[in-house]
Amino acid sequence: VIDRAARRMWLAGAELDLTPKEFDLLGFLAEEPSRVRTREEIISRVWDEHWWGPTKTLDVHVASLRRKLDDNHGWITTLRGVGYRLDPPE
Q1: Residue 89: DSSP 8-state
Q2: What pLDDT does 54 receive?
Q3: What is 8-72 written as a DSSP string?
Q4: What percent of the chain has pLDDT over 90?
Q5: Closest CA to 11 of 79, 58, 67, 63
């Protein structure tokens, strides 16, 4: 469950402790689950359209989110050379 107004997220009844960027990233991916989001799209929307830093920061944030989601179920799918997709388990 994602509560955008309160900027809080729960998984299996437990609240996750997300950084602001992790919350923004997960919220963006959750807007349209199963839709592929390009790296450029994510950086532009979650960071800034004029982001000049390394795109490796996106990989670091995705890895952190996966750990926090206990990503044994493949919540966040990497599409090599394209971007990421949120695939919540059913």
Answers
A1: -
A2: 67
A3: EEEETTEE----HHHHHHHHHHHHSTT--EEHHHHIIIII-TT--S-THHHHHHHHHHHHHTT-T
A4: 64
A5: 67
